Structure formats: structure tokens, C-alpha cells
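Lab notebook, bench 4. The sequencing result for the construct came back, and we need a structural model before the next group meeting so we can plan mutations. Quick request posted to the team channel:

Model the 3D structure of this chain.
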Amino acid sequence: MSSAQAKIFDNTRRISSFAVASVVVLSLVLGSFIDNSSITWQVVIALVALAVGIPHGALDHLVTLPRSSFSRMAIFILVYIAIAAIAVWAILTWNVIGFIGVVIMSALHFGIGDAAFITEGDRASNSNQLTSIAQLLYALSAGSLPVIIPLTNERSTSALSAVNKDLVNWHGGLDSELMAAVLFITTLATLVLAFSKRWRDIADLLILSALALLTPPLVAFAAYFGMWHAMRHTARLTLNLKSSQKFISENRPARAFRQAVIPGLPALVGTFIVSLLIGIQTPGKLSDEYLWLSLVVVWALTVPHMMVTAKLDKAALR
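Done. Here's the predicted structure in C-alpha cell form:
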């Protein structure tokens, strides 16, 4: 691959790592000065991070049907929206079961996507790639750290109560066991990566561990989603978007990356409009419901998004 493609992956990895590490530091600073009972600052950071991440899934139709007719594209979009709408209904109807499904899907999607990002980055720079066992352990660790750990630590109760009180005991009392399992897998992954001298990959796991263990749950999930997963997924999209490849061939990596961002911005506006419309129909103050509804919409969009990206992930990890 070209040096421009390799630069996109290198810069994205560096920026996403720095962004998440900065959130960890900011969270520690704010947490030491602000009363622990106040989560306003957490909600603000979470909403900003979610806003950054929402557009990354809005180009699924361009990747899946790059040269399709209008009718096929319209059908794809309608089916995509229908699946997301069904997911919204399911989560709102069966809060706990739907949430557990979201947790499992998110951990798998995030972990596999991150492992695919690293593999495609290695391929772009002609570097040695992860072994199959290293890919598996890294994917399990990178996906479960920002999802499972924040939802099983002692601070998860207040965070989940702010989102939806029905979710507080989602783990059925197995919080300690789930946390221990994730930390064990992460330790095992670190040892395997160290054996292969994959120090940069270990650094990623350390940053994710710090995010999961040192920041409040809302901040941890949102920061990972918007500043890590979304950025890295966007870099991967440049491999499949014709508009991005045009600028890569001209050795203009920054412009190529923007081509994978700009078309997704309307999705950001649309997501929050949908959340507002749902909120208007919901009893109580909108401010109390808005974060929950926004998260539900984001989680619901993960369902068709994961189905679409599975093909890309399989090709990347072959």
C-alpha cells in the first residue's frame, strides 16, 4: 500500500490514543475537584464523545453498495433503518435483556474492529502482523475492557441509575466474576503480545485499562466509542471509499480521511433529532431522559452497523 495509507493509520492510532489518554487525565482532575455525587460533567463529556462517534457508521451504505442503483440503495437504507428501529423498540421494551445484548455486541464489535484496524495498519506499512492467537486475545481484551469493566465496578451503580435504574443489576450479581475474567484475558493478551514484542499493542491495552479502571462508566464508554473506535473505523473506511482512495493516490492523507468523515455528519444531526422526538413523547423532564434515549439510539444503530462491518472485519483478519 501507499505511504499515504500507512500515514492515515499511524496518525489515527496516535491521535486516538492521545485523545483517550487525555480524557483519563481530565477525568481524574475533574473528579478530584467536583463532588462525587455530581455527574453533570460526566454527561457533558459523554454527549460530546458520542457526538464525535455517531457519524462513523453513516457510510455503511457506501461501503456495502458502492456502485449500486438508486433502488437497491434505497432498499438497503430502509432495511438498515428498520433493523435499528426494531432494536430501539426492543431495548425500550425489554431494558435489561436488550442492554445485555448491547453489551455483548458492543464488546465483540469493538474488539474485532480494533484488531482489524491494527492488522490493516500493519498491512499498509508492510509490517509483521499479529498471529491468530494474538488477534483473538487482543480483540477480546480491547473489546471487553471499555465495555465490561466500567459496568461492573463500584461506580457503575450511580452511572446506570442516571441512565436507567432498571439496568443497575444487569449482571445478576456476577460483577466481580466478570471483572476478574476480563482482567485475566487482558493479562494473558499482554503476555502473548510481549512475547512477540508488540509493544505498541500493549500500550493500547494499557490506555484502555486506564480508561476502564480510572474513569466513570459514562465517560469510559463514550470516550472509547467516539475517540477510539469511531476514529479507527473511519481510517479503515478510507480503504474502501473511492473518494478517499483518489486522494490517497495523490498522497493527500488528511483529505482522504475527511472524505470518510464529512458524508456522515448528517447522521449526527439526525440521531439527536430522533432522540428529541422520542423524548417529547416521554413523561418527565427531557433532560432526565435525553442521555438514555441518545444511548438507546446509538446502541440500536450498532445492530445493523455490526452486521454490515462483519464482512470488512472478516476480510481484514483473514
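The mean pLDDT is 83.
Will bring this to the meeting.
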